[in-house]
Backbone:
């Protein structure tokens, strides 16, 4: 064995004996707990974002309705239930998006 | 179970698969973090952060490299950004001008055990040399893998490794010399 090889072997052995931190037995539990905590916080943040977006959207719709619709036509529209149906459809769409995209992504294990 | 199967089980939401991934790679992550971060209080927290990032980014892992290389990359970057945040990331240091000093007491204890002596020398080296030595000798990564993990050019990796070995040899010879076991 040459001096170079001998040195390499000794160096490798020395490095292998180098102490590293001992991770506790429950390390994987700690990691999973941390992930769940982060997911929970992310879930709360996105819920607030979702509620704010929905609220903002409905508010804008109401402002548009009041600003651009002939006031004499309100009763006709309301009678037909068109606005109620529109709002219902929007809610269903938001629910579908929430279930399919948002909640699925936030589900920890 | 191979890496591909393991990753696909984690992505399917199986907790046991992620636990297995952690068990398989926690030694590697602990080595990486220990080499870069001196503060004991931060090390375990950083190891946890590495696996949280692994979990969050696993979807983006496309098997362009081994899973261990990818996890080592995350560990390296997590440690480097921690050092930067704490403003403890030393500027690129020149190994030739580095003062490797230790007390007489250290020397006498360490000289009695070559492994401990080498360890104490490595601890005093600049971070980038420690990382390259760890990845090459302890984890057995190849040059291209070390390049991928550290984002250093291959020439730089080879240069660091060459100079670190040379320096270690040079510093240990006066004290250890003939004590290196010959076969």
Residues:
């Amino acid at each position: 064995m040459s001096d170079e090889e001998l040195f390499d072997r000794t160096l490798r052995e020395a490095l292998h004996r180098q102490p590293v931190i001992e991770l506790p037995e429950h390390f994987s539990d700690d990691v999973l707990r941390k992930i769940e905590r982060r997911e929970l916080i992310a879930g709360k943040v996105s819920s607030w974002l979702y509620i704010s977006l929905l609220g903002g959207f409905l508010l804008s719709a109401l402002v548009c309705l009041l600003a651009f619709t002939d006031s004499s036509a309100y009763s006709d529209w309301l009678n037909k239930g068109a606005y109620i149906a529109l709002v219902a459809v929007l809610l269903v769409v938001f629910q579908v998006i929430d279930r399919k995209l948002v909640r699925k992504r936030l589900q920890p294990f | 179970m191979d890496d591909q199967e393991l990753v696909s089980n984690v992505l399917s939401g199986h907790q046991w698969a992620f636990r297995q991934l952690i068990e398989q790679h926690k030694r590697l992550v602990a080595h990486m973090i220990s080499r870069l971060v001196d503060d004991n209080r931060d090390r375990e927290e950083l190891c946890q952060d590495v696996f949280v990032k692994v979990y969050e980014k696993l979807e983006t892992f496309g098997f362009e490299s081994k899973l261990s290389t990818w996890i080592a990359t995350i560990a390296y970057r997590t440690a480097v950004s921690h050092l930067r945040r704490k403003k403890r990331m030393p500027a690129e240091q020149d190994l030739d001008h580095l003062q490797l000093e230790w007390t007489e007491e250290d020397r006498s204890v360490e000289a009695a055990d070559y492994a401990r002596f080498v360890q104490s020398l490595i601890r005093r080296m600049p971070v980038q040399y420690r990382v390259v030595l760890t990845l090459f000798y302890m984890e057995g990564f190849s040059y291209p893998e070390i390049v991928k993990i550290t984002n250093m050019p291959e020439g730089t990796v080879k240069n660091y490794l060459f100079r670190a070995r040379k320096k270690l040899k040079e510093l240990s010879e006066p004290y250890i010399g003939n004590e290196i076991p010959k076969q």
